[in-house]
């Protein structure tokens, strides 16, 4: 019994590290936001996006901001900050037409710090997968996100905590809202959602593992 307890104490910090992000290394990453204007991006729907002094923000009037470039396999890093009651999201592998939350998929972000997680809470793969942890920060604080989309696999870290490690083709996700996750394409656009109230973004950068065809 004592030996088992000792091994538990040895493994405990290892298990803890398994759910946290590795030390940030940006040497392979390229900025995809200039910090001053919307170069490289295209507003879809409402003209509700602004850029100044390193911050990209939306007033929450609807529509989304789409990258000019399509991506296949990549690691995306960014920071975001919410105002009270704000709702937004990060679109990945989405199409130019249609609802980007379902032509690709969406990582939800909203003002719900400390609340229980569900299919639409912060960090959720919208309508499909509940995040492992509720780690979104309070209104007005910056959050750090890292999204790795490699082949059919998705890994997401939020504020240093791993909240997803999934396979899009896992049969467990066949009953996701509107369509099974197996329909997530292998490439598409990156986007930011304008939904409710102001949301700020900064430090958008990407490591392209495999360019879009």
Brief digest:
The radius of gyration is 18 Å and the shape is globular. It has helices spanning 2-18, 100-103; strands spanning 30-31, 41-44, 49-52, 55-58, 64-82, 87-94, 105-110, 142-150, 153-158, 161-167, 188-193, 199-211.
Would you mind describing this structure in some detail?
With 213 residues, this protein is mainly beta. The protein has a single domain, classed as Exo-inulinase, domain 1 (Jelly Rolls), CATH 2.60.120.560. It has two helices and twelve strands, in the order αββββββαββββββ. Strands 1, 2, 3, 4, 5, 6, 7, 8, 9, 10, 11 and 12 form a twelve-stranded antiparallel beta sheet that branches. It starts with a helix and ends with a strand.
Tell me the layout of helices and strands.
Blueprint: H1 2-18, E1 30-31, E2 41-44, E3 49-52, E4 55-58, E5 64-82, E6 87-94, H2 100-103, E7 105-110, E8 142-150, E9 153-158, E10 161-167, E11 188-193, E12 199-211
Antiparallel strand pairs: 1-12, 2-5, 3-4, 4-12, 5-8, 5-11, 5-12, 6-7, 6-11, 8-9, 9-10
